[in-house]
Design a protein that fits this description.
Family: Belongs to the peptidase S8 family.
Helix content: 10-25%
GO biological process, one term: proteolysis
Keywords: Hydrolase, Protease, Serine protease, Signal
GO molecular function, one term: serine-type endopeptidase activity
Strand order of the largest sheet: 6-9-5-10-11-12-21
Distance between the termini: 47 Å
Protein name: Subtilisin-like protease SBT1.9
Length: 719
């Protein structure tokens, strides 16, 4: 727990002594946070501050250059930790370790306001909320099934980490370019499994038979879930700041799989977060929708990476960009070539910025022509939605829409000497609206188990910056490759580790909670509003609010998840009852449960889940025929002992919705109370989706336990 408290102080302190680097030559000094045993303070000292001052004076290296002893002690801490921060040389740090009462130290580093951002976008802070309350996930183990890991990554350094948990029984497996010494207190386990791959692909050459990551994906996702704090992270200047995972003090265990597999993240318990898939936006495209998983959709964040095109008349046009190279900001001649079809013309204007408009020649072919002609820079005008494929250009290029394109063309036509300049590596924070459900994120329902609403939750998945393997290029062009320690990726497999990290925080705060309880806490405390205080929308259509089939219960909120008030729990037998209700064979259930025997005590499709989905899709029925669907749920009080909750229902068009009873009164903590939710509507509903929410609101307003309700006429194909 001490390391997490130290981390809190790390987030407070800004390293404002920049002259040290140039002044020190004999022994460079750095700032350290030192944790001390408060009970070891000798009686002669009147305060901890005087004790810490005496310690710093006693270990002071007289041969070291300034600053003097009096200002080497920066801060004394007596609340969140007992200790101090000081500027120390390596020899002074070694002397400190022999001081009575010394416990540990952590190097200090600056924390910029503009960070690599998703933890801050989710509201995580070092001075309040989920991070300090959970000790930053200290002691929790997050297992990642992916492409391996780059163990030398700065995100996997174990400075300030607690010891490997005694319960850990895993191993650090030796293999190609990977030995057990590469594991540490952060990366505590590493295994690889390639026998199945080699058996099915006998002619394939598996170069890296170890847990070392040659792809980059596993390093990216694992550092997103539990990476340590890293200063100076960026993607070629984009998103520059401090990188960290959602649970920066959790331990990591990587399981490398060589064959194609959906990414899975589990914190010991075992809570499993899985990516929903990248096959959206159509309904029924979801993957990894098993009811014991937390299935995660991907959303945008309030950060955009861009470049700026400045015209000679001062007009500035912003455009999405991840161009990794350099470009002179000096103004150069602009020339409009319309379709950019002629290589001969392009080669005559190599010293200019060419402007191309989508027309008879495809955008891809125009890009090829411009690249091959080696012009100075280019502006491409199109009504095409510019994906990462275009914005991560290998030469200086601005991709703009029709309206901005008209502005550029009009300027060129009116000017006697049209000029322009391009700038890159720009990062904007606070963009609105955010989050949005991104188009690629797979949607529910899940055909294999339609009675459980999927996805479960939305988390940041678009343009996520995290660590990367230096063996894999972050971007590969036609003529060259770019390599880096960090990369920016989009996908639901970027969203899932955010949820795994939050689960680790909840697990650290509530070590006795079951995986189902953790899932419930995360789902029932989500946000349904974006940063404009309007309902979260779909990225494809900003006039269309997202439904629970797009985003599940809502956007994850780590700070609220630690104190949900009530939870929906589920046992192994509950899942078996569901499998029995799905009419799976005995053998199929054994394969899933890995148990030699099981009992179908109460077969039911009505799992005690924090969400509801009902189908009104009987196409052959008459318009007047009605159907009633009833759901039973049980809530466990994990908040205050004596408390009462009142049900609040949002209207659902064309349906009658009621809950009984409407009030739940708990007399003590961990008491369980049940209720029924009833939906009545036509057997065949005209709308594809109608949705609402059931919220249980505590009498003091402290807790709002919210669950999505979906009524749908979608007919799923047989899986």
């Amino acid at each position: 727990m001490a390391s997490a408290n130290v981390l809190k102080i790390l987030c407070f302190i800004t390293f404002a002594i920049s002259y040290l680097t140039s002044n020190y030559s004999a022994q460079s000094a750095d700032t350290y946070i030192v944790h001390m045993d408060s009970s070891a303070m000798p009686k002669p000292f009147s305060s901890h501050h005087t004790w810490f001052s005496a310690i710093v004076a006693a270990i002071s290296d007289d041969s070291a250059p300034p600053p003097t002893t009096t200002n080497k002690l920066i801060y004394s801490y007596t609340s969140s930790i007992h200790g101090f921060s000081a500027i120390l040389t390596p020899s002074e740090l070694e002397s400190l370790k022999n001081t009575p009462g010394y416990l540990s130290y952590t190097p200090d580093f600056p924390l910029k306001l503009h960070t690599t951002h998703t933890p801050q976008f989710l509201g995580l802070s070092c001075d309040h909320g989920a991070w300090p309350a959970s000790s930053y996930g200290d002691g929790v183990i997050i297992g990642v099934v992916d492409t391996g890991v780059w163990p030398e990554s700065e995100s996997l350094k174990d400075n300030g980490m607690s010891e490997v948990p005694a319960r850990w029984k895993g191993e650090c497996e030796t293999g190609t370019q990977f030995n057990s010494s590469l594991c540490n207190k952060k990366l505590i386990g590493a295994r690889f499994f390639n026998k199945g791959f080699t058996a099915n692909s006998p002619n394939s050459n598996t170069v890296m038979s170890s847990c070392r990551d040659t792809d980059g994906h596993g390093t990216h996702t694992s550092s997103t879930a539990a990476g340590s704090f890293v200063n100076g992270a960026s993607y070629f200047g984009y998103g520059s700041g401090v990188a960290s995972g959602l649970a920066p003090r959790a331990h990591l265990a990587m399981y490398k799989v060589v064959w194609k597999l959906g990414q899975v993240y589990s914190s010991d318990g075992i809570f499993v977060a899985a990516s929903a898939g990248n096959s959206g936006p159509l309904f029924g495209t979801i993957e990894n929708g098993a009811p014991w998983l937390v299935t995660v959709g991907a959303g945008t964040i309030d950060r955009e990476f861009h470049g700026v095109l400045t015209l000679g008349d001062g007009v500035r046009i912003s455009f999405p960009s991840l161009y990794p190279g350099d470009c002179s900001p000096k103004a150069k001649p602009l020339v409009f070539l319309d379709g950019c079809e002629s290589m001969a013309i392009l080669e005559r204007v190599q010293d200019k910025i060419v402007v191309c408009r989508d027309g008879l020649m495809s955008l891809d072919d125009q890009i090829d022509n411009v690249r091959n002609s080696k012009v100075l820079a280019a502006v491409f005008i199109s009504n095409f939605s510019f994906s990462d494929f275009y914005t991560r250009s290998e030469f200086p290029a601005a991709f703009i829409g029709i309206m901005d394109g008209k502005t550029v063309i009009d300027y060129i036509n009116k000017s006697s000497d049209p000029r322009g300049s391009t700038e890159f590596q720009k990062t904007a924070l606070g963009t609105k609206p955010a989050p949005k459900v991104d188009a690629y994120s797979s949607r529910g329902p899940f055909a294999y188990c339609p009675s459980v609403l999927k996805p479960d939750i939305l988390a940041p998945g678009t343009s996520v910056l995290a660590s990367w393997s230096p063996l894999s290029p972050v971007f590969a062009g036609h003529d060259r490759q770019w390599f880096g320690s960090f990369n920016i990726l989009s996908g639901t497999s970027m969203a899932a580790p955010h949820v795994a990290g939050v689960a680790a925080l909840v697990r650290a705060a509530h070590p006795d909670w079951s995986p189902a309880a953790i899932r419930s806490a995360i789902m029932t405390t989500t946000d349904s509003m974006d940063n404009t205080m309007n309902p979260i929308k779909n990225n494809l259509n900003l006039n269309s609010p997202a439904t629970p089939l797009d985003m599940g219960a809502g956007h994850i909120n780590p700070n609220k998840a630690l104190e949900p008030g009530l939870i929906y729990n589920a046992t192994a037998q509950d899942y078996i009852n569901l499998l029995c209700g799905m009419k799976l064979t005995k053998r199929e259930i054994q394969v899933i449960t890995r148990a030699s025997s099981h009992k179908c005590l109460n077969p039911s499709l009505d799992l005690n889940y924090p969400s509801f989905i009902a189908y009104f899709n009987d196409v052959g029925s008459s318009p007047n025929e009605q159907i009633v669907q009833v759901f039973s749920r049980t809530l466990t009080n994990v908040g205050e002992g004596g408390s009462s909750y009142t049900a609040k229902l949002t209207p659902m068009e064309g349906l009658k919705v009621k809950v009984e009873p409407r009030k739940l009164v708990f007399s003590h903590k961990y008491e369980k109370l049940s209720y029924k939710l009833t939906l009545e509507g036509p057997k065949w509903m005209k709308e594809d989706v109608v949705h609402g929410h059931l919220s249980w609101v505590s009498s003091d307003g402290k807790y709002v336990v919210r669950s999505p309700i979906v009524a749908t006429s979608i007919i799923l194909d047989d899986p």
